Amino acid sequence: MHDNVKFEDIKTLTYLLSHAEIDEQMLYAQARSLASQHCGEEVYLRGLVEISNICRKNCLYCGLRRSNDQVKRFMLTESEILDAVLFAYEQGFGSVVLQSGEQHGFEFVRFVERIIKLITQKTNNQLTITLSCGEQKEETYQRWYEAGASRYLLRIETSDPLLYSEIHPKDEIHSYNTRKECLFMLRDIGYQVGTGVMIGLPGQTTENLAQDLLFMKEQDIDMCGMGPYIVHPNTPMAKNKDKILSPEQRLKLSLRMIALLRILMKNINIASTTALETLHPEGRLLGLLAGANVFMPNLTPVPYQEKYSIYAGKPTLHREQVLKKIKMLEKQLLDYGLQIAWNKPGNPIHYQLRNKNDINIS
Ligand code: SAH
Ligand code: SF4
């Protein structure tokens, strides 16, 4: 299907995102088959640990925004983080993601650096570390990279500067250009770089989303985590809650985005995000069947999961429930010839190839 279509044009992508007559099952199957062909018939696990909900920013969509005084702020201790991370390691996850609100204090920077070093030591450098701690100075990114982190997730949120300015306060700490600059810095330092967008934002058009796909292609990213926008009641954007697409529409649009990105970028890692599951009980399985190849179970200690409420309805699961869920997913995946990649870091093939190319050029 679509073999003769030139995907890399905005009109075709917009059509494929918006047209009601598209055979979605065929689109998803094609994307899944490309994922299997180029990345393997495996799904990589990343244990997510939400290390702090303290944030200096005020993004208009996010429940953790600094002006939301309903949030009880926390910072996990070193031993809480290590406990969760070592659980991931012992269970064979191969990789962890440390995520937080954006903090710039020297203490935070040093704390994260220390944690990265401790994880590296305690796992004999066998657990790949991804960070998702927002925009930072180049020096900080460099410091964390040298400590042992190798991947960084920083969503551009939307590639359209105008829409970006509408969903953020208009001030210097919420700058589209700075965020984009950070993506360049991360790449220059040597990180495997991940970005992504929210899907179904108020005021977002399908052309915007098609442009988002092209943005990711242009940026030559290694990883993507994108998912539906979900309203958080204590945010300024909640006032537009009646103006957004229905949950079914946002789910479908998100799955089409995953499938089209897979067709555009065959060998990157694409996460099937938790937000998909908030819209549909099998949301994350659907994402994997539409071309995603990464699953990120949440390993944050339960009392803190509730406080890390980026959007409403984010599921809370104990470790035992997480393991049960993975086992169930493993069974479901078997029907499609897919397996969980236990004990594998799951580096994006895209990164391996672009590094080889860079070395050949220099
Ligand atoms: N502070 C860091 C990482 C934590 S936020 C950062 O902003 O990069 C992680 C992601 O949550 C954001 O990139 C954003 O895309 C997503 N997010 C925030 N609010 C959301 C909402 N209401 N619905 C869906 N995703 C949301
Ligand atoms: Fe902070 Fe990230 Fe939420 Fe923005 S999206 S308010 S930076 S946690």
- Main β-sheet: number of strands, strand sense, barrel status? 11 strands, parallel
Counting helices, strands and paired strands, the structural category is: alpha/beta
Shape: globular
Number of strands: 11
Estimated helix fraction: 40-55%
β-strand percent reads: 5-15%
In this entry the ligands are: S-adenosyl-L-homocysteine, iron/sulfur cluster
Q: How many DSSP H or I helices?
A: 14
The whole-angstrom Rg is 19 Å
First-last Cα distance = 39 Å
What is the mean predicted local confidence, pLDDT?
94
Order of helices and strands: HHEEHEHEHEHHEEHEHEHHEHHEH
Give unreliable regions as ranges.
none
Furnish the topology, listing elements before pairings:
Layout: H1 10-18, H2 24-39, E1 42-45, E2 47-52, H3 78-91, E3 95-100, H4 106-122, E4 128-132, H5 138-147, E5 151-153, H6 161-166, H7 176-189, E6 192-195, E7 198-199, H8 206-219, E8 223-228, H9 247-264, E9 269-272, H10 274-279, H11 283-289, E10 294-295, H12 302-305, H13 319-334, E11 339-341, H14 349-361
Parallel strand pairs: 1-10, 1-11, 2-3, 3-4, 4-5, 5-6, 6-8, 7-8, 8-9, 9-10
The structure holds S-adenosyl-L-homocysteine (SAH) and iron/sulfur cluster.
